[in-house]
């Protein structure tokens, strides 16, 4: 049976990679974005702001991918408000909610008391974004009524990196590959995301991915 998925905030580069990966695997994909024309490979496109989405818009999908991103000081709180809105729309349904997350909230110690964004080498310029995304994740963890999965990329998330077709699946902690790298391309991250939709069962869990 063909998987039906929706991708929200579909205009971004990570979203487009996920859409392409899903379409190439035979998924039926609906993209929700803010552009007038469909900039993605999705078979269906709906121009709609994320806050204007309704429960009816998302009815009937096996999974909804939240690819929302904001980078300016005044819009950073929308990481929490948009995710809360989507969670409310999907609450109590069987539709999975998968979030394109951040790496800053990954833990760097076994006790899970220190995150990557709290380490000395983490760039100051990225801390507001990391904090905003961590806050959204903290709110999400309180939701027992949504089948969510939060997918964090590696520390070096490369928009134009190669599609190697290989990745390591990890959990709450920052994971390095055997070359000591924390790196993943958007294309390989998209593979991991679609794999999770297709055969993963990390419900109400955070996963992370790094290049193998």
Highlighted features:
single chain, 212 residues, 10 strands, 4 helices, Rossmann fold, alpha/beta, oxidoreductase activity, acting on the CH-NH group of donors, NAD or NADP as acceptor, Polyketide_Oxido-like, Dihydrodipicolinate reductase, eight-stranded mixed β-sheet, two-stranded parallel sheet
Can you walk me through this structure?
The chain has one domain (4-211): Rossmann fold (3-Layer(aba) Sandwich). It is built from four helices and ten strands; from the N terminus they run βαβββαβαββββαβ. The protein has helices spanning 13-24, 78-90, 127-141, 186-199; strands at 4-8, 28-33, 44-47, 63-66, 96-100, 147-152, 156-158, 167-170, 183-185, 205-211. α2 (78-90) packs parallel to α3. The longest helix is centred in the middle third of the chain and has 15 residues, at 127-141. Pfam families: NAD_binding_10 (PF13460). This is Dihydrodipicolinate reductase. Residues 10-195 form the NAD(P)-binding domain.
**Order of strands across the main sheet:** 3-2-1-4-5-6-10-8
CATH H-level name... which superfamily? NAD(P)-binding Rossmann-like Domain
Count of extended strands:
10
CATH T-level fold name: Rossmann fold
Helix content: 25-40%
- In the CATH hierarchy, the architecture is 3-Layer(aba) Sandwich
> What are the secondary-structure elements, in order, as H or E?
EHEEEHEHEEEEHE
């Amino acid at each position: 049976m063909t998987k039906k998925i929706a991708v929200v905030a579909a205009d971004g580069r990570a979203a487009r990679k996920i859409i392409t990966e899903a379409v190439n695997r035979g998924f039926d994909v609906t993209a929700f974005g803010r552009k007038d024309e469909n900039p993605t490979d999705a078979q269906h496109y709906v121009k709609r702001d994320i806050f204007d989405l309704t429960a009816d818009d998302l009815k009937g999908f096996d999974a909804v991918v939240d690819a929302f991103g904001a980078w300016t000081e005044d819009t950073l709180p929308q990481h929490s408000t948009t995710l809360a809105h989507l969670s409310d729309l999907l609450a109590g349904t069987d539709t999975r909610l998968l979030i394109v997350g951040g790496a800053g909230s990954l833990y760097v110690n076994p006790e899970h008391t220190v995150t990557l964004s709290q380490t000395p080498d983490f760039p100051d310029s990225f801390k507001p974004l990391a904090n905003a995304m961590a806050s959204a994740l903290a709110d999400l963890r309180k939701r027992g009524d949504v089948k969510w999965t939060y997918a964090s990329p590696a520390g070096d998330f490369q928009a134009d990196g190669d599609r190697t077709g290989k990745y390591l699946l990890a959990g709450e902690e920052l994971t390095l590959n055997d070359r000591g790298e924390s790196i993943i391309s958007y294309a390989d991250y998209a593979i991991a995301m679609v794999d999770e939709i297709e055969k993963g069962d990390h419900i109400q869990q955070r996963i992370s991915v790094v290049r193998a």
